[in-house]
Design goal:
Strands 2-1-3-4-5-6 form a six-stranded parallel beta sheet, sandwiched between helices. A five-stranded mixed β-barrel has the order 15-16-17-19-18. A three-stranded parallel beta sheet has the order 7-10-11, with helices on both faces. By secondary structure, it is of the alpha/beta class. 35% of the residues lie in helices and 21% in strands.
């Protein structure tokens, strides 16, 4: 009986989602069936995150739970991929000795072969094969993360343009888990996006640990434009691509040539994820973030001069070692004054082999929780206010697919990355359709189709 049903569970960031999609595509290309129900799977792969200790603990807990199933069915295969695998390595086998695969961040493309070898050995009726641990660095591994032509169509797609990070942020484990910066060739990225466009992809998000530093050492500036801006220009020219996003940039490389793109490129969405981390210069310095809060805000001011309707999200860490009430008050002040539309708020946790590790974790859990809650309340207020300003407005929505709840309800996004729920039809998936917003929450817009042709079609369907 073939053991070809694979379920992939992804933890963490968009880059992890992109890596999981790439592994799924490669597995399909080798004859595996990638399924949505883990109960039916012969193989479960956990693509893990190490940015926070809580993320690692979730993945370890999940793997431990799956071991109970493995004890009942020795042929059931469990693998751990990605950042936690890279971070913990063979030590994972100390706590999870029955784990079959431990695959690092530069070895995703090896998963199908490792899995096939594991299954072949099992079906040989011999003893249980040894766990496969593959964590080594691999030259040009950044060039294995391209799209695969045999994969299923996507309305929106993540495209990794680089791997790794050369920054030394005190709290961050990514340089350890992802390695040094390595850029993909510009031509290969453009070719991948062209292929996606021919298959129906309408929106592209360019991914990099510090995306605006793309190719800064490999490729020359042209007409005072950075390699990243040159890449944006090439992507903007691709027929069929209607929207472009990117994440995550760093203030250190956010120059005027990139800011001008918001005026010159209609496809570049008025949405930016821009990590602030703290509003205190003292804490930013301790975090080894090489900018001041004044510099950070000046970049936002310049962007808003070019695009006044810009939607901006951010990352904030509360409770970094040494953060006082005064430091947090500065974060609260700038967070509120900037008026972020969305934010990822994190309570600091110690990560191994970072420069902040020796500082310990002196800020109490109660202090972190209070500070986190203060920012959450500000965020909810800002987000709701921004959404309420959209009531009775009309914007184009890119429909991505059926909503999780409601008959004939579909989900899409605005250019500002707001989630929209509308009564619609499957035929509109992948289309940009005008929607009038009728009611909102802090997180979601609800509306109605306004195109005359679409309204007529919906009436016919209803009848």
């Amino acid at each position: 009986m073939p053991m070809n049903r694979v379920y992939i569970k992804t933890y963490g960031c968009q880059m992890n989602e992109r890596d999981s999609n790439a592994v799924a595509a490669m597995l399909r290309g080798k004859g595996y069936s990638v399924i949505d129900n883990e109960q039916d799977a012969d193989v479960i792969l956990l693509n893990t995150c190490s940015v926070r200790d809580q993320a690692e603990q979730k993945a370890i807990g999940k793997a431990g739970h799956l071991m109970k199933r493995k004890h009942k069915n020795p042929n059931f295969i469990v693998g751990v991929m990605g950042c936690m695998a890279q971070n913990r390595g063979e030590a994972l086998l100390d706590s999870l000795p029955d784990l079959d695969l431990v695959i690092g961040t530069q070895k995703f493309h090896r998963v199908p072969d490792h899995l096939s070898n594991m299954i072949d050995t099992m079906q040989g009726q011999g003893p249980r094969p040894e766990s496969i641990v593959d964590l080594a660095e691999e030259l040009d591994s950044q060039n294995t993360i391209k799209a695969h032509l045999n994969d299923k169509p996507q309305i929106t797609a993540f495209v990794s343009i680089m791997q790794g990070c050369n920054m030394k942020c005190a709290y961050c484990i990514v340089p350890k888990t992802r390695g040094v910066e390595r850029a993909r060739p510009m031509e290969a990225i453009v070719e991948e996006i062209e292929e996606l466009a021919t298959k129906g992809t309408r929106e592209i998000t360019l991914l990099g640990q510090i995306v605006n530093q793309y190719g800064i050492r490999e490729f020359p500036f042209v007409d005072k434009k950075s390699p990243f801006v040159q890449l944006l220009e090439k992507v903007h020219a691709i027929e069929g691509i209607e929207r472009i996003r990117f994440t995550s940039p760093h203030p250190i490389g956010f120059k005027d040539d990139l800011i001008k793109c918001y005026a010159s490129m209609p496809k570049l969405c008025e949405y930016l994820h821009f990590p602030m981390q703290s509003g205190s210069d003292r804490i930013l310095k301790a975090m080894r973030r090489p900018y001041s809060i004044e510099k950070f805000r000046s970049i936002i001011d310049k962007i808003r001069m070019v695009r006044p309707d810009m939607y901006i999200s951010t990352d904030i860490i509360v409770g970094f070692p040494g953060e006082t009430d005064e430091d947090f008050e500065l974060t609260r002040k700038h967070f509120e004054e900037i008026g972020f539309d969305m934010a990822y708020l994190f309570k600091y946790s110690v990560r191994p082999d970072t420069t902040a590790e020796p500082l310990g974790d002196p800020v109490t859990k109660a202090q972190k929780e209070h500070r986190n809650q203060v920012l959450l309340e500000i965020l909810a207020k800002n987000s709701l206010k921004r959404n309420e300003s959209l009531v009775d407005k009309i914007e184009n929505v890119l429909f991505e697919g059926p909503a999780k709840k409601g008959e004939d309800m579909f989900v899409g996004r605005t250019r500002g990355n707001r989630v929209v729920i509308v009564k619609a039809n499957q035929r509109l998936v992948g289309q940009l359709v005008p929607v009038r917003f009728s009611r909102v929450t802090a997180n979601t817009l609800y509306g109605d189709l306004v195109l005359e042709g679409v309204e007529s079609e919906m009436e016919a369907i209803t009848l």
